[in-house]
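Q: What structure does this chain adopt?
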Amino acid sequence: MATEYGQGYGLDGRPGFPGSTERRHRLPAALRAPVEGRTWRELGYVLLSLPISILLFTYAITMVSLGAGLLVTFLGIPVLAAALAGCRGLGALERLRARTLLGMEVADPEPLRMKKPGAMAWMGAVLKSGASWRALLYAVLHLPWAVFSFVVAVNVWVLGWALLTYPLWFWVLVYSGEDGMQLYGDETHRVYLDNPFEITVTALVGLLLTIATPWIVRALTMVDRLMVHGLLGPSRLASRVVELESDRGLVVDTAAADLRRIERDLHDGAQARLVALAMDLGLAKEKLQEDPEAAARMVDEAHGEVKTALQELRDLARGIHPAVLTDRGLDAALSAVASRCRVPVQVEVDLAERPAPAIEGIAYFTVSELLQNVSKHARATWAGVEVWRTGNRLMLQVVDNGVGGADTSRGSGLAGLAERLDAVDGILVVDSPAGGPTRVTAELPWRGAHVR
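A:
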């Protein structure tokens, strides 16, 4: 989780949850589980799985068998397409059931991709879709598991509560002429649970079984979760494609924002100064014959404006891509950044070779933004930067002894930085307890060495 510097520094409480209080229960989780709503919802899911899986299995086998038998004619293709489409629709209902009873969020699978409209194109898209065949596989495989989980859950649940409440309904057996619940019996010998000690032990066994039943049911639903997620959700390839499309959009938005920032800085900074400089030089040229001393003063002021404009252009160029990073690498570039920080910064770079230029630039701007946050918000007296390589990953770590207590909900700087790193398969992790210290670790792909 990315935790951000900002106004939340120094707040009491856990980072990321200002003012929140945990709900405390008097009973431990093991004793609450048999009567919790989550347990009853999971039991309801298991009980409903059997009739629903019978419906799914019957529909899938009937339709696929019919379609396979009709493949010798043209009718087999539309029947198979209808079978797969029906499985997709039933899979959507299963995702809804898992979301309602198990609290499980499963994204919809990838939609059908049709190159052109029409019935033939639709049938081809359904038959080519991996999500359709995964839904069919779910309909076939879920029935045996639903039978097993139903039998286990019902028997364990009924047995546990029956034994636990045995002292309450023991009188029913006595009233009907029995000595109690029969534990064993043959032609010559019978064993009944009829004395107070045996009744108490039976109730205790029932209590243990009742306490264990919710966890058994939860373990059974874990398999259902895996099946729903793996067979009814999007494939890994489709999820990766969506993630890459999102990252591409983020990169494009970031590049557009950077271009707008550069345009704004040029317009409001160097360009405005150069315009004023041109006007001053024009006035100095007019006064050159009439008042040489005033013209000399105006030229001297223009000379100062030129220096200021050059410095602004250098700062702008450094913000785009510093020359020291291109020429000398991360060690020298980060040392230059550290020298401009308001607090003393110790820089240690342990790299035998240089990463790819794009990764090197991202690492530079990551450290730059983190040190800028230290200067503005951390109220620290010392900071440290470490850079090293682990396998095929470039590791960055920025530490400060500030007040800590960072809160991502109070700003977007580090949240945006985490999104940028995620766009290149990077990771940003922040550890910032109240009172400090703050430790920010970034991990980037190495992407190969760069030889200059």
